[in-house]
From TrEMBL:
The species this protein was found in: Pristionchus entomophagus
Alphabetized Pfam families for the sequence: 7TM_GPCR_Sri (PF10327)
Stated name of the protein: G protein-coupled receptor
Cell membrane recorded as keyword: no
InterPro entries: 7TM_GPCR_serpentine_rcpt_Sri, Nematode_rcpt-like_serp_H
Membrane spanning stretches: 44-67, 88-108, 146-173
Keywords of this entry: Membrane, Transmembrane, Transmembrane helix
Length: 202
């Protein structure tokens, strides 16, 4: 799993720093890209969709790594010990299901003409940021309840995922202490040290 994370991080860096080079214009829901891919004609929301999917897979690889490490710590007979088939199913579901909303958004979102209409409509954003036309391929989004809900849900998912990972680490340390009679002291020390390293890396 470490190798997967490293590969995903390299792909992210190449796509973000070379492919799209996205420059957001917060608090306006707008931005522009000056990267190679967008200059060659890739729609900006495709580029952003690919970036979000990369981030999703980075999160998937981290969560999967923690779950698999958890399964090596808990012993047989533990309530949270999962079967190998269940672990494989969980991995497949995370890989397949999580990117679907982003793919739908990237393929169905509005085109450049819609961004242009929103850009010149002062009711959408009175800050007059029409200068972004000269900077590169640009994107403008209208503030809607759906967009607000999406932002809030992303924040909730982030905090929920963090809490989930923290809970798994807490359970692993608890299991080590609880089952200390079933392992040698040296093994417990090695496992504890590896968990600390993994926690710091995450």
């Amino acid at each position: 799993m470490k190798q997967v994370k490293q590969v995903v991080l390299i792909i992210q860096d190449v796509h973000l720093e070379v492919g799209i080079q996205a420059i957001p214009l917060f608090p306006a829901l707008a931005g522009y890209c000056v990267g190679l891919f967008t200059q060659l004609g890739m729609p900006i929301y495709w580029g952003m969709g690919i970036l979000i999917i990369i981030w999703i897979y980075l999160g998937v690889s981290i969560v999967s790594c923690i779950i698999h490490r958890h399964q090596t710590v808990v012993l047989s007979g533990n309530t949270f010990k999962l079967q190998k088939k269940t672990l494989v199913t969980l991995d497949v579901m995370m890989v397949v299901l999580w990117p679907i909303p982003v793919i739908v958004w990237a393929l169905t979102d509005h085109d450049q003409a819609t961004s242009e209409k929103l850009l010149i409509d002062v009711r959408i954003d009175p800050r007059n940021i029409t200068w972004i036309r000269d900077r590169g391929v640009y994107y403008m989004e209208k503030q809607t309840p759906y967009v607000t809900l999406t932002m809030v849900s992303n924040i909730v998912i982030l905090f929920a995922g963090t809490a989930f990972c923290m809970a798994i680490f807490a359970h692993m340390f608890h299991t080590l202490r609880k089952d200390r009679d079933k392992r040698s002291l040296s093994t417990i020390r090695l496992i504890r040290r590896s968990l600390i390293v993994l926690f710091v890396q995450v």
